[in-house]
Please model this.
Amino acid sequence: MSGCFDSAKEFYASIGVDVEAAISRLSEIPVSLHCWQGDDVSGFENAGSLDGGLAVTGNYPGRARNAEELRKDIAKVLTLIPGKKRLNLHAIYAETDGKKVERNELETKHFVNWLNFAKEQNIGLDFNPTCFAHPLAENGTLTNADAGIRNFWIEHAIACRRIAADFGKELNNTCVTNIWIPDGSKDTPYDRLAPRKRLMDSLDAILAEKIDSKYNRDAVESKLFGIGAESCTYGSHEFYMGYAVSRGILLCLDAGHFHPTEVISDKISSTLLYLDEILLHVSRGVRWDSDHVVCWDGELQAIASEIIRHNYDKKVHIGLDYFDASINRLAAWCIGARNMYKALLFALLEPAKMLDDAEKSGDLASRLMLLEESKSMPFGAVWNEFCQRNQVPCGMAVMNEIKEYEKNVLSKR
Ligand code: RNT
Ligand code: ZN
Model:
């Protein structure tokens, strides 16, 4: 324990904040790391291009080329990020022993190495059907007018839910399965209704099988547009909001999937009045891209503060979603994930009682002063302490470890 930490603790106590309570609460909030940052959303099917309106730019050397390399990188990353972690997998990360297994035929056995890895690392798993980067996804997946193709994707998602339920059961840790599809239209469609009706029916068919919510919970993710789906995306926010509310499942809010000045932090309290739980894809939109590495910016802080202020720790499942291949991939992972925990810790150190009193008594100048003064309070000392207690490095020491790993491992790929 450092002198800096002791004096920070004393300072926070003087404004009514219990630092030890903040640290223990933070230690119980899981953040799900997305496996796909390690290999540019390639997966192990050798399918070729990504498509689905997704694009990973950059070709920084050292990309994980197979499951072993990816797990090795994730294991390293897990030693550099403090806090309780989970791992989010996509169906394309199945290991099929070199045999071709169609996506609608995937089984839990294709994920045993991941399950063992999760056990070793003592982390929960989350899951996603992969409804892109596949020849049958070219003209739509769950909205496809061709019943055969639509059915292929329905079967794929059903297979994924079963695998997810096994993850939940095996790990004794609830898995969240998130459905995102790229379906949409480059130009203005004449009929937007029919594809949406098909999407609704497809989702109903996928969810028809009851799975114990102890093992798996389902989420659906909206998007405003994607490359090649500029004029209409069938799985829009309104579509999924209505779907999630009417079916009692989770809504996934991706921070990069709305209009540029629209923020998901403002949607959390609204959606949770009608839904029991939601999933977040914490990301950072930059112009057309929805997936830049998460920075500790105003919106990230607002997201974290919403969760903490309203005690949504168990209702909001926090997942990360970004892919950057222009910088060291492990650094990208760590920067974004550490920022998520930083924002949560910062929210936990807010002078909550003082802010609440100021707002309730109409003293809005004090509210603003407090919020602004909070920014220069001794947060850093508490963050470093949190890292130390979690046995992960602080500050640029993280980068030194990554550079070392790059020299010894990544540069040899
Ligand atoms: C795409 C969605 C989706 C994907 C991942 C890989 O726009 O955000 O969540 O990023 O499933
Ligand atoms: Zn997403």
Q: What stands out?
A: Residues 113 and 266 are 39 Å apart (CA to CA).
